[in-house]
């Protein structure tokens, strides 16, 4: 595929969010380019869609050449996830080209996870679930895919299935300080607690009668977390922090941090809440 300044964004940046892209800066007068180009084209065919070759005529696209500081050709830049990751200058032996490519290419489990994320963006949750299960079948220790699956299950209120997947996570995740793990643990606990908790109306009545009832306040926050009403939960958790930092061994602050992770889709709101928490703790 040939690309120009007008199509580079779509041909390279957007495409590399799906599969790696190699950009070959070349020119018709360049002898080494005529050697490297066919080698790259052969490997692109051999790798059967696992990466894409994009060719840029450096003479016809001086803006792109200047942007990537192309001073000699052939010059190859590798892109993944929308960003340039690696590069080389000149003609490499085929064995070195293969090694260069193999470093860029995701393994089979990662390929399945990328497919799952694409399916989620397209709104196909069932297909996403199948790709995540395939990724875990290839690599049972691939915790990032298992966390993705847990999030999908929680969004569907499949608490028992999510808890089972949580039990299969590696100790590195469960015993460390993984923010997503802690967030999902908090959400599971809230969903399970909500089944036995009084209604929100009963808890709010208790708080009206006694605003210092921190147990009622935490129970209400848990119910809001289970219902994904995260900002309402944060209001009560913040009040717990302000009234008694020691409550439940700092339970208010710790739960707020977990909710921040659950609200990662709203970074500006999370930043605002983090500032409020910092002010309350100072």
Instruction: Report the portion of residues in β strands.
Output: 5-15%
The topology string of helices and strands comes to HEHEHEEHHHHHHHHHHHH
Residue share in helix:
55-70%
Number of strand segments: 4
The biggest sheet, with number of strands, parallel, antiparallel or mixed sense and barrel status, is: 4 strands, mixed
The radius of gyration over CA amounts to 26 Å
Structural class: alpha+beta
Strand order, sheet with most strands: 2-1-3-4
Distance between the termini: 57 Å
Poorly predicted regions: none
What would you give as the CATH superfamily of the largest domain? Answer: Glutaredoxin
- Based on the structure, what is the oligomeric state of the protein chains? single chain
> How many individual domains?
3
Under the CATH scheme, which architecture of the largest domain would be assigned?
A: 3-Layer(aba) Sandwich
CATH topology tier name of the largest domain: Glutaredoxin
Continuous helix count = 15
CATH class of the largest domain: Alpha Beta
Residue-averaged pLDDT: 91
Question: Globular, elongated, flat, extended or rod-shaped: what is the shape?
Answer: elongated
């Amino acid at each position: 595929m040939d690309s120009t300044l007008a199509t580079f964004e779509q041909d390279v940046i957007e495409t590399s969010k799906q599969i790696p892209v190699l950009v070959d800066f070349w020119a018709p007068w360049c002898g080494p380019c005529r050697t490297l180009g066919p080698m790259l084209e052969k490997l692109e065919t051999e790798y059967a869609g696992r990466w894409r070759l994009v060719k840029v005529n450096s003479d016809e696209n001086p803006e792109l050449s200047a942007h990537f500081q192309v001073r000699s050709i052939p010059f190859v830049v590798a892109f993944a996830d929308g960003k340039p990751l690696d590069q080389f200058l000149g003609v490499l032996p085929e064995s070195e080209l293969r090694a260069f490519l193999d470093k860029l290419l995701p393994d089979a489990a990662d390929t399945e996870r990328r497919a799952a994320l694409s399916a989620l963006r397209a709104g196909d949750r069932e297909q996403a679930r199948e790709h995540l299960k395939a990724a875990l079948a290839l690599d049972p220790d691939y915790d990032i895919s298992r966390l993705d699956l847990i999030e999908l299950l929680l969004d569907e209120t499949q608490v028992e299935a999510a808890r089972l997947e949580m039990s299969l996570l590696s100790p590195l995740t469960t015993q460390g300080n993984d923010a997503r793990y802690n967030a999902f643990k908090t959400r599971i606990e809230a969903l399970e607690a909500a089944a036995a908790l009084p209604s929100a109306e009963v808890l709010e009545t208790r708080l009206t009668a006694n605003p210092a009832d921190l147990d009622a306040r935490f129970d209400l926050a848990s119910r809001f977390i289970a219902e994904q009403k995260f900002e309402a939960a944060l209001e009560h958790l913040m009040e717990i922090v302000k009234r008694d930092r020691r409550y439940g061994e700092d339970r208010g602050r710790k739960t707020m941090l977990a909710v921040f992770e659950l609200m990662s889709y709203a970074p500006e709101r999370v930043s605002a809440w983090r500032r409020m928490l910092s002010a309350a703790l100072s």
